[in-house]
From TrEMBL:
<keyword id="KW-0732">Signal</keyword>
<protein>
    <submittedName>
        <fullName>GDSL esterase/lipase At4g28780</fullName>
    </submittedName>
</protein>
<dbReference type="InterPro" id="IPR051058">
    <property type="entry name" value="GDSL_Est/Lipase"/>
</dbReference>
<dbReference type="GO" id="GO:0016788">
    <property type="term" value="F:hydrolase activity, acting on ester bonds"/>
</dbReference>
<keyword id="KW-0378">Hydrolase</keyword>
<keyword id="KW-0443">Lipid metabolism</keyword>
<keyword id="KW-0442">Lipid degradation</keyword>
<dbReference type="InterPro" id="IPR036514">
    <property type="entry name" value="SGNH_hydro_sf"/>
</dbReference>
<comment type="similarity">
    <text>Belongs to the 'GDSL' lipolytic enzyme family.</text>
</comment>
<dbReference type="InterPro" id="IPR035669">
    <property type="entry name" value="SGNH_plant_lipase-like"/>
</dbReference>
<dbReference type="InterPro" id="IPR001087">
    <property type="entry name" value="GDSL"/>
</dbReference>
<feature type="signal peptide">
    <location>
        <begin position="1"/>
        <end position="19"/>
    </location>
</feature>
<dbReference type="GO" id="GO:0016042">
    <property type="term" value="P:lipid catabolic process"/>
</dbReference>
<dbReference type="Pfam" id="PF00657">
    <property type="entry name" value="Lipase_GDSL"/>
</dbReference>
């Protein structure tokens, strides 16, 4: 009888633990948040990889709460951090972070990796980075890990109810098509045809996300590629945005929006939301003073013309007030610029985000 009593007690205890986990997930937690993509949204996965595409040394993170580099390509918070704030959740951890275990898994995960693109031959110079097929494999592995915690049915519900952000495309131009004066992709395609090819491949990635249970996905295109300090340094003598990269962004983004509309129609639901990053950034690039910036051409951290040459390092020029700069380093927006972008994602009109903004998504999904 003693053994039977122990077994019964153990069963009750395990049931209580299981129920507690369920309650924590369904009632106590914000919706899960998953992030895929490149350096604009990488929270530190590349810290764990043997690659040159990393932001784990000062002055990166100078304005982060810890004032230390985290692997984010920012002086402080990046776009996923700020979206997590809107969701009322803690920031998602990088999937490769050993701390991503237990209840932390229920918050979501960040699979992004600096240097990657839509295409697998993008960013080959960075060697070990997590390309999109691998990011999607890790998402499947994540679901298996969570199933072991809360069961398959609750895991499916967590993923179905989650918000997802995917940011791709910029590297397919700056670290592939335009990487060298004569690149393999340039020989193969003109800008318009290359953009069509990228959007076709992006569609396959989105379809895979749908297959893996994604039901609310923010999909960003490229920013104004020709206007970042790196491109100004390489291609502009007077500070005007570089013509060819701007043509690329102007070709890619409308094609992406069209593809998303068609894909949603095919799926019979507004699963994918097109985030027009180019329009969002054009506002503060074209009129920086209206947003409190002193400049949208010179990076806060860098060297050479427009502080646009090379990497941001401890030896770089560093601006004393990051609030005055739209760009933190030669490629990435400052924390202040990221806040403007996320504010527009949250409440912007269909000029910037379609078919609905994040506040509308949250309102609809809370019913």
């Amino acid at each position: 009888m003693a053994n039977l009593g122990f077994a019964t007690t153990l069963a009750i205890f395990l049931a209580m633990v299981s129920t507690a986990t369920f309650v924590t997930y369904t009632e106590g937690a914000a919706r899960a948040f998953f992030v895929f993509g490149d350096s604009l949204v990488d929270n530190g996965n590349n810290n764990y990889l043997a690659t040159s595409a990393r932001a784990d040394s000062p002055p990166y993170g100078v304005d982060y709460p810890t004032h230390r580099p985290t692997g984010r390509f920012s002086n402080g918070l990046n776009i996923p951090d700020l979206i997590s704030q809107q969701l009322g959740a803690e920031p998602t951890l990088p999937y490769l972070d050993p701390a991503l275990t237990g209840d932390k898994l229920l918050v979501g995960a960040n699979f992004a990796s600096a240097g990657i693109g839509i295409l697998n031959d993008t960013g080959i110079q960075f060697a070990n980075i997590i390309r999109m097929p691998r990011q999607l494999e890790l998402f499947q592995e994540y679901q298996q890990r969570v199933s072991a915690l809360i069961g398959a049915e609750q895991t499916q519900r967590l993923v179905n109810n989650a918000l997802i952000l995917i940011t791709l495309g910029g590297n397919d131009y700056v670290n592939n098509y335009f990487l060298t004066p004569v690149s393999a992709r340039r020989i193969q395609y003109n800008i318009q045809d290359y953009s069509r090819y990228l959007v076709t491949e992006y569609r396959k990635i989105l379809k895979k996300l749908d297959d893996l249970g994604a039901r609310r996905v923010l999909v960003t295109g490229t920013g104004p590629l020709g206007c970042v300090p790196a491109e100004l340094a390489m291609r502009s003598s007077n500070g005007d945005c570089a013509k060819e990269p701007q043509q690329a962004a102007a070709a890619f983004n409308p094609l992406l929006v069209q593809m998303i509309k068609r894909l949603n129609q095919e799926l019979g639901s507004d699963i994918f939301v097109a985030v027009n990053a180019m329009e969002m950034q054009n506002d503060f690039i074209n009129n920086p003073k209206a947003f409190g910036f002193v400049t949208s051409k010179i990076a806060c951290c860098g060297q050479g013309p427009f502080n646009g040459i090379g990497l941001c390092t401890a030896a770089s020029n560093l601006c004393p007030n990051r609030e005055e700069y739209a760009f933190w380093d030669p490629f990435h927006p400052s924390e202040k610029a990221n806040k403007i972008i996320v504010k527009t994602i949250y409440s912007g009109s269909d000029k910037y985000i379609t078919p609905m903004n994040l506040s509308t998504i949250m309102a609809i999904d809370s019913v």
